[in-house]
Amino acid sequence: MSGVRPGAAASRGGTGSRGGTGPRGATGARGGGGARTAGEERALTSVAAGDRFRGEEPAHTPRLWHVTLSVSGARAPLPEVRRALEQLAHDHPFLLTSRYADDHAEIRYWEEARDLHDAAAVALRLWGEHRQTAGLPPWEIVGLEVIDRSTYHQRIAAGYGPAPATPVGVHPF
Prior knowledge:
- The protein is an alpha+beta fold.
- About 25% of the residues lie in helices and about 25% in strands.
- It has 3 helices and 5 strands.
- The chain has helices at about 80-90, 115-135, 150-155; strands spanning about 65-70, 95-100, 105-115, 140-150, 170.
- The chain has a 5-stranded mixed β-sheet.
- The chain is globular, with a radius of gyration of 25 Å.
- It starts with about 60 loop residues before the first strand and ends with a strand.
């Protein structure tokens, strides 16, 4: 039955496809409790909207992640690299700063994502997806760092990483 969570009863009143005697045996869908008879419903509990443990953020709430993407490849004319990075920054104003040379570049920006995996996935697609539209060099991604906001601020406070006064924009190394 589509739309039924694995392990949940397939029907409310009749014998479901997993009605307690399926492949997991008679102990129920999750392996707990006693045996259920055909047609017996499991007791379900719910949590009121907005209820959660103190200090815990919901898993679906987006967070800010600081991303540093490093790319490298064959030499390209500096004016073309600069123009391409400026075009990328124009197309995507979330970019904080880009540094470049004729054979490598580094892009720093904030990404809003549910978790590190999502932020990293977006970062890994950034260069390839915008190579044509921004005219970026055919370089490959050679480095990626994704850290949460609190880690970024801890590093800044400890004197590591770029100073907050680093000029925003596209700059040579």
